[in-house]
Amino acid sequence: MAVSPEPSVQFNPEARVRVDQVGAERQPVVCIDDFLLGAGALREDAVAKKGFDNNTGFYPGLRAAAPGSYYQALQNSLPGLIERVFGIHSGQIASVECSYSLVTTRPDDLHPVQRIPHFDSNRPTELAMIHFLCGPELGGTSFYRHRDTGFEYVDAGRRESFLGALEADAKAGRLPPPGYINGDTDQFERIASYEAAFNRLLLYRCTSLHSGNIAEGFDFDTDPAKGRLSINTFLLNG
Questions:
Q1: How many Å apart are CA 194 and CA 78, to the nearest integer?
Q2: Half-sphere exposure (Cβ direction) of 60: Cα atoms closer than 13 Å
Q3: What residues does 236 pair with on adjacent strands?
Q4: What pTM does this model have?
Q5: Which of 122, 185, 221, 232 makes a 20 to 30 Å CA pair with 151?
Q6: 176-201 pLDDT tens trace
Q7: DSSP assignment string, 76-94
Q8: What is the chain's alpha carbon radius of gyration, rounded to the nearest angstrom?
Q9: Dihedral of the CA atoms 161, 167, 171, 173 (nearest 10)?
């Protein structure tokens, strides 16, 4: 059986890069529009895949490994930007995880912690990316402030205080109702929001509180050709 070639992708020299300082705590968020040449081939590769799997971790949906050519495109295009914006050089990054991702978990099936903004790790030297391979009708990503603590990010020094505040809310009967957060609530204030746009990349610290914008009426389609397709990437220290 012939092996399908990996999609050919590379950084777009005409990509539009913007760096925002978000919220009162001014956490950096990089937004790159028209990020890669060949993004359409990535979408075609995802549609052709038969290996999307149920995710057993936090992500509310299906995932499949992104191709090695995508990882190489990141390696060729982002290190200088990452060092300039975040002060993180390539030697600090021990591993990179890149996955095609589809939001497919319905609101009633979410665990309580999936109904609120989250952080991906407590290390400010670890970064997260979402590269949208879908349009704005399927929802972007927002960043949040926790009202009681004022936290817009949760590092190791804030972790116990933040989790303690969530536990106090649960004991007081303030669990969020079934559903995805998509704007202000009694517990969280939205401080920035980015629409999905085909071939738009968002890059931010793993400590930043964030959540996908999944609105009422979302279809939760499991077909990559129709669903909220993205590539989610983590740059990790270990």
A1: 20
A2: 26
A3: 95
A4: 0.95
A5: 232
A6: 899 999 999 999 999 999 999 999 99
A7: HHSHHHHHHHH---GGG--
A8: 18
A9: 110
